[in-house]
Amino acid sequence: MITINENYLKLQASYLFSDIAKRVAAFQENNPETDVIKLGIGDVTKGLPQACIKAFHQAVDEMADDSSFRGYGPEQGYDFLREAIAVNDFQSRGADISADEIFVSDGAKCDTGNIQELFTEDITIAIPDPVYPVYLDTNVMAGRTGHFDNGRYEGIVYLNSTQENGFVPSIPKEKVDLIYLCFPNNPTGSTISKDELKKWVDYARDNKALILFDAAYEAFIRDDSLPKSIFEIEGAREVAIEFRSFSKSAGFTGTRCAFTVVPKECRAYDSQGVIHQIHEFWNRRHCTKFNGVSYPVQRAAEAVYSEEGKGQTVELIQYYLRNANLICNEIEALGYQYDGGKNSPYIWIDGRRDSWDFFDMLLNEAGVVCTPGAGFGSCGEGYIRISAFNSYENVEEAMRRIAEKLK
Ligand code: PLP
Question: What is the DSSP letter of 7?
Answer without folding.
Answer: H
